[in-house]
Amino acid sequence: METRNENTMPRIGDYAPDFTAVTTQGNISFPEDFKGKWKILFSHPADFTPVCTTEFMTFGSMAKTFEELNCQLIGLSIDSLYSHIAWLRTIREKIEFNGMSDIQVQFPVIVDIGMDIAKKYGMIHPGETDTAAVRTVFFIDPEDKIRCIMYYPLALGRNFDEIKRVLIGLQTIDHFGVALPADWRPGDDVIVPTANSCGIAQKRMEGHEKNVRCHDWFLCTKELPVEEIERKIVKK
To answer: Domain check: are 38 and 97 in the same one?
Structure first.
């Protein structure tokens, strides 16, 4: 059986490691409590730190957007429950940033003082710091499989447009059975699966497959309007 170093993060395609935890919204069993939803599990280095504060304000301001995409946000750091609560209260009552104010963070923030969960998910990178979690983002699908992983150093805040784009992209891939090209955004052309026979490839190249445009036999695209994507994945 393969053994995993405590600082090795789980890989894309793995099932999300399970755990129980105390959070700002009560106790949770992860991922079991969120079955059937997409999950974004993300870590931050510490409460009452400047970059993390801007990130939590951004996540909080986008909470409804993620909810409409059937996605549960779950944060984590190695601070205590009381620290989490005091920090989130400070964010709501005192902090204005980038046009945001009065931001109430209602998604759970995990207490991980012993770093057990952070180590299980490979969030501790000793070359960066061995006393705090780096900025990790796990995208976990409704079947509890890890679909995408991002991580950032302590000093660099995350790009939330990209986090949203990746979530919508993964759902688009699943719902429409397509692949997505470089720099894809909802409404751009998508890549259709490579033809599984010479006959199909030839028909595509000759323009006989409706709405499909072939740049060569191995690269064919089609339109996928943003309205069609939203009908499938956005829950109002």
So the answer is: yes
Are 148 and 184 members of one domain?
no
* Strand 71-77 versus strand 109-111 pairing type: parallel
Measured CA to CA, the distance from residue 134 to residue 212 in angstroms comes to 43
Same domain, 108 and 205: no
Question: Quick check: is 198 catalytic?
Answer: no
Look up the domain containing 204 and give its range: 177-233
Strand 146-152 and strand 135-140: pairing?
antiparallel
CATH for 198: 3.30.1020.10
**Which strands sit side by side in the sheet containing 219-222, from one edge to the other?**
190-191, 219-222, 212-216
Model pLDDT, residue 202: 58
> Range with the lowest mean pLDDT among 8-12, 27-31, 199-203?
199-203
Burial classification of residue 185, based on how many CB atoms lie within 10 Å of its CB (0-12 exposed, 13-18 middle, 19 or more buried): exposed
Of 5 and 216, the structure prediction assigns the larger pLDDT to: 216
Stated as kind and residue range, the H or E segment containing 221 is: strand 219-222
Encoding tokens for residue 74? Answer: 């779950």
Supply the DSSP symbol for 125. B
Residue type, 188: D
Write out the E strands in 122-171: 135-140, 146-152
What is the number of domains present in the chain? 2
